[in-house]
Protein 1
Amino acid sequence: MFPRIPPNLSSCPSFQVLYNFVEDFRVSPPNFESPAQPSFLSPDSWGWLITVVSSDLAWIEDDVQKELIWESTSRRISERCGRCALPAMTRIFKIFPTLEIALHEPSWTSDNLGLKTWGASFVLSKKLDQILPSNPRHILELGSGTGLVGLTAAALRPNSPVLLTDLPEIVLNIVKNIDLNHSSHGGNAKARILNWLDKTTWGAETFDLIIASDPIYSEKHPSTLLSVVEELLETGGIFISIYPLRQAYASEIRDFETRMKKMFTIEGAGEESAFDDWDHEVQFRWSIHRKV
Ligand SMILES: C[S@@+](CC[C@H](N)C(=O)[O-])C[C@H]1O[C@@H](n2cnc3c(N)ncnc32)[C@H](O)[C@@H]1O
């Protein structure tokens, strides 16, 4: 996979030679459409990268060049240390041939799940053009994360304002992603804090369409998320959700589905599989419910 033999540091390779070799080890982040690119490295290659990152590169005089080599090398190492260790990155998600969404994903800190993009949002974004009502008055997304679904909705329905919401530690990055994609949504996407557990953050506005992608991974989530939907969804409005069928959360999913059945009438549902960052093929269930 890496046929060229990297230079021995004792031969004092030039900045350009060394930098090019390090960059050859780059692994592209997964795009959720196919299994992740293999990132296997032989023990010799690991050893070489570690030698470079720990070398003082004394023969390279320019400090900026040294920094570039150390930074690139440490990124090539962290790309292979699992999704949790990945450095911050900006990825392009191709939703349709004519719609690409760029998302900044900061490096993962303090278990903030909303700082990365989850497979459910990719699957739902690709379905949205078939299932979105034609002219929603006002769209709310709950637990937007990096914003893929909300930004796709805003691009597909340019006349409908979309409000993306999440916890305080997530919203700044959503604002950044709204700015990054300004040309596709034309300014119709906004973001603010909305904590399902804190009613004072819900606001008084109501919506005729609410969307949630991968929102169920704690026993509190079915009831707290659905209380927000009950309060903010107008009668006649639509609630679209999607979630992965993770064995670990089977009882939470059952609880969520039982509650939705009592609250709404179902208008559509289905299952799809896709790849996620963890390189598994995952099964996702989506549904469309109406508040009558
Ligand atoms: C698994 S992530 C999914 C993110 C995004 N929807 C996606 O599919 O990529 C779950 C999201 O729910 C948000 N969340 C969890 N608890 C929440 C709460 N109490 N209030 C608001 N958002 C919450 C998290 O911050 C995170 O962004």
Note: The beta strands are 89-96, 99-105, 139-142, 162-166, 189-193, 207-213, 233-244, 265-275, 281-290.
Protein 2
Amino acid sequence: MKWNKIILAIALITCLMHMPYGYYILIRYISTVIFGFMAYKYYKNKKNELCITFIILALLFQPFVKIPLGRKIWNIIDVAVATFLTILFLIEYFKNKKNEYSQKKGNLTFCNIHGAGSITCTDCGMQTEVTVFMHGPYSCEIGRQCQSCGTFFTEHNESKIYHTFGPQTKNTVCPQCGTINFRNGELYKRQDTPLFCPKCKSRNLQYQMEFIS
Ligand SMILES: [Zn+2]
Ligand SMILES: [Zn+2]
């Protein structure tokens, strides 16, 4: 439904040409449905100004109670609405493109960084020290991020066998909010979910490694 704005904008422009009367009625039916649908979509996304704009447009275009404005005025409305839809489409299109890009960029996980260092959020400036993975011969510190509140913390693991993980012997509990992130008995693993800023939830994070073991 991403392209419905552009298709409707083109349909409105075709109304400037001499078309059979039924065509205008059809376009008004379609416009009312699409405007209503958009009003609902923006209401759900909490974009109230756009929601109200589309309710007004749906009322203006509805074919049941004709608003006698004359052909000239309707032509102006058609052009204005088509322009508005095109601009809105372009704004949303490039915003989505930007989001896709920043998500691709924002894919730090504990599996693709190493050692210990600091994480900086490029969106809000939050900076914090993190341990990703530090190990001795029979034990290691494993970096974790609470999936609920975003706090970074470490989990200690010991093993009787050189350079291996021992079994998980207790729940991994967030020291900040108490959420259980891994359960006792779960297979021991590093967290592979993308890291996010604890403050603003952005994934645009940078990692600066300071130590490695
Ligand atoms: Zn942030
Ligand atoms: Zn937490």
Note: Residues 4-105 form one domain.
Protein 3
Amino acid sequence: MKVTPFTLERFFSQTEFNVRYHLAASAIQAWSLRELLSLANDPDLQFSLFATRLGYTEPEGIPELRREITRLYSAPTDPGHVFVTIGAIEANYLLLSTLLESGDRFIVQTPYYQQLSQVGIDIGATALLWQYHEDRGFDLQEFKALLDQKPTLVMLNTPHNPTGFIFSPYEMRQIADLCLERGIYLLSDEVYRELGETLLPSIRDYSSEAVSIGSMSKSYGLAGLRVGWMVGPPEIIARCAAKRDYTSLCSPSIGQHLALTALRHRNKIWDRNRRLRLRNMTILENALRTNPNLTWQKAEAGVVAWVGYSSKIPSEQVGWELHRRGVLVAPGIFFGQEGHFRLGFGGNSCELEAGLAILLDYFKKIE
Ligand SMILES: Cc1ncc(COP(=O)(O)O)c(C=O)c1O
């Protein structure tokens, strides 16, 4: 199979570990192992973690973790619906590469997290792009029009990267019903679901045939555990599991045990992460307000902002010029759209303020 470079990841590989102010990350600030363990406030925990066997685990994930993941879903879910993967990225890859075939059509939102469109395109399927509008988000009428082209799969991302848009329960119900009526596979990348004001609805609340993709990375700040999951019909999981036997076999044992600890204490983690998100969003709003040439729709969930600028400079050039000044943003072209960049505001608040000051100074000069 042809593999088109994942442009954002290639850019990050050259930039993200050598920059002063990283304002491109899509996750909330990472926790240290010490912070995570002290959050649990359980003196026996360290000892039980030390006893963890560092062998392979069950391919679907350790049973306790799968059980804990079911608690994130209010629709009837049992561990048989849960497949633990190496991050959401593996779940997305397995699903798209298993369910799509050459010649198929699939709907995907744009701007996009490249994986969600590229895997299908590289297989030989055609991506039907569902365009974001600054004034109204993703329009359901446009979705219905795309359905006339007879897609076999819909790849949703809600809350959405890079805009922070979320579908309302009404819209999710409509999308789910339309897919069910037509026998269309419905996948929903929900890695920011825990990072709104509350735990947001899942597509699984509206369709037992749909697949929800989640992760410990973005909303929890535990990307280094490399634990994600899919929750969906057992038949789909079985097909993905058969494919994963040829790649990674299982998610890391220690990552799964730490993910279990984190999920058992999720309310404390969500609480800190949501407070940080709100504080940083205010910093961002106040900063962007000072330059009317920089536009954005306030993110409804998650910690990424999709910022438009009026200069004609290509976004990749903007990315490199800012990098030279010590600030990292993610160029819009890597999400399929020029004139924008994605700004991650989930990190340290002081660093966000300092990085934004450099960014604003840069845009004052070029706009
Ligand atoms: C929408 C979306 N899905 C999936 C991923 C992959 O995340 P993970 O670390 O869980 O593999 C990302 C990472 O940027 C993302 O933004």
Note: The pocket of pyridoxal-5'-phosphate is lined by residues 26, 87-89, 92, 113, 157, 161, 189, 191, 215, 217, 223, 228 (CB under 6 Å).
Protein 4
Amino acid sequence: MSQVYKGVQFIPGQDEFIPDSHVYVIGKPESGDLSLVDAGLTGKGSYKVNSIKKLGIRPEDIKRIIMTHTHLDHIGCLAELQRDFPAAELWVHKLEADLLEKGDDRAVYGMEMFKGMCQTQFGLDVNAFKFKVDRKLEGSETLEIGDMIWDVVFIPGHSMGGIALYEPVAKILIPGDVVYADYAIGRFDLYGANAAQLKDSLDKLAKLDVDILLPGHNQIMKGVPADYIRKTTKMWEPYLV
Ligand SMILES: [Zn+2]
Ligand SMILES: [Zn+2]
């Protein structure tokens, strides 16, 4: 748990046998207009809520939860967070939002076999991932939230409706699971994934000037070398066809 930059706080995922995504709290503390980026794995709600409270954040200041994408390790504890932050809206890219509103959980579980395993493990019922989405993102918005500016970048490939958030002043990139800090990229074998789209999305991110990389899992990275995303993309290119 720590402040990455003024207006960006980091709550690390607490991985179990399934990974738990990191949560980032974005927005200047004094704005009273804070956003959570992603939620985390099923069962991790109280850990995330307690971590947020320990940061001294008032529950009523959490105005929205923005999902980079809706895989189980990011959305699993969303309902748990919504209980503690009832005023928070839910913002999701429209392609995955439409599925959530229908209760279509294919993008959540990614594959049928994993769905059965998780439903048993966590005691999840069939409507566990039916959500009302307050704002459906398109992927080219400029959000003025929490006294900061965040660009929404549509980056499908790891999932069909993946987005990144990019803050151009401090050059902060929150890319979900599309690119990580250790020359890794997100998997592209789950429902809605597409290798060629992932390549295009990585190319799009490589054009951004990034100093701080805040991925969905594992280490975060400050002082990102100028060609880091381009190099990472190059390494994976043979697989992304
Ligand atoms: Zn994912
Ligand atoms: Zn993930």
Note: The helical segments are 45-54, 72-75, 78-84, 94-102, 106-109, 112-122, 195-206, 228-236.
